[in-house]
Amino acid sequence: MSPLHSDQATTWIADLAWLGGPTLASNVRIEVSDGRFSSITAGDPGSHGTRLRGIVLPGLVNAHSHAFHRLLRGKTHRQGGDFWVWRDHMYEVAGSLTPESYEKLATAVFIEMAMAGITAVGEFHYVHHQMGGDPYADSNEMGHVLIRAARRAGIRISLLDVGYFTAGFDDEPLSPVQSRFSDRKGSVWLERVAELTAAYEDDADVVVGLAPHSVRAVPEAVLVEVAERAPTGTPLHIHVSEQPAENRECLNATTLTPTGLLDRVGLLGPHTTLVHATHVTAADIDLIVDAGAGVCYCASTERDLADGIGPAADLAAAGIPLSVGSDSHAVIDIFEEASGIEMHARLASGRRGVFSPHELMEAATVSGSASLGFSSEGLAQGSPADFIVVDPDSPRLAGLSEDTALEMIVFAATASDVRDVFVAGRQIVTDRAHPGWADARKAIDEGWASLRGTPL
Ligand SMILES: [Zn+2]
Description:
- The protein has helices spanning 83-96, 99-115, 141-153, 176-179, 186-199, 220-229, 244-254, 258-265, 282-291, 299-304, 312-317, 334-349, 357-364, 366-372, 405-412, 437-440, 442-451; strands spanning 10-17, 25-33, 36-42, 50-51, 55-58, 60-65, 118-125, 156-163, 206-212, 236-240, 272-276, 294-297, 322-324, 387-390, 418-423, 426-429.
- By secondary structure, it is of the alpha/beta class.
- The strands form three sheets. Strands 1, 2, 3, 4, 5, 14, 15 and 16 form an eight-stranded mixed β-sheet that branches.
- The protein is globular.
């Protein structure tokens, strides 16, 4: 049973809808019951049903998010620096969060996502404990906070619960803020996550996954423990090779690349998603392919943090499924993330059309859903009834024609062109408005001011 879904059986009609493949289908009849698509029929809309006011796509999937990073948007550009300088600012925000403030902030961020057409988020969650590392009375308090926030927004959440144990390969002690992220022992972390998983076992809108933070933050012995103890089918996400420094340190410590290390400990598999994979090698790509693992690209963050351009074309040519995430929320726009894969590949290769528009749309929908453990097949019978309506009257889409509509949307539409959003058949955004936004946005408007007050 899904607390999000509507009990009503409903029929909608779409002039144009993306059912997969390179083109859109016309005159599509969409029937929903019990929160799932009971039938999708193209070419014959029938005589009754509610007409949707635009182009219908499956709900967009944001496969990598850290909700609290949203407070840093627009605040860290003056100082310059690199990823590591930005990380110090991010730690300042992480140190300020309480369960009460984080619930408000995450609610606002997830509502912003809903209004951008995102119907499922993968929240890579690591602020678990109090400053200094003591757990809250319920050690999963912060996880429950994020799940409640997603509920308020009306979207699905895959809570990717992070394990974090070391500040680097040489066993540096954790700083007070990093201690908030740490359960100190792998077994304590895995038991905490097992309790969280059990609490949402019967909930179709919530998945709980495991996320060893990175090979920098999780010792090899704990990675082995995860490989041995993770329940079959659990989504497993990990930051990999976002920065060259991580590769160098991992090679020095283990003689292996981060991906090579994950292979050695048995953590590469069909339910594994490597986040970023910006600086992976050709040998790493072979290992990822052999394991059937996926890669999540976060193009807007990777360019914002000057990470570099990952080998997306090589990954795709090898058949590795790609998903996308807005990660640090420099922007929240899944069309931007999807087109960013292609645009970065063009800059790196000097060639256009590395990816087709429908491959990018798959990354933004069905591949992301599989990566998060929701397994939607898009607008297809039996899949969760999560869908969005893109406004063809948007100035950005003037000139749209049926045969090129998909590329027009992928390369020119923005999050603000999403008009209506439905999750499990229930409408959560109408005419670009979400009923919770006006109150929720205060947490973003006031959050930075109460923390610091001036841009960096
Ligand atoms: Zn991340």
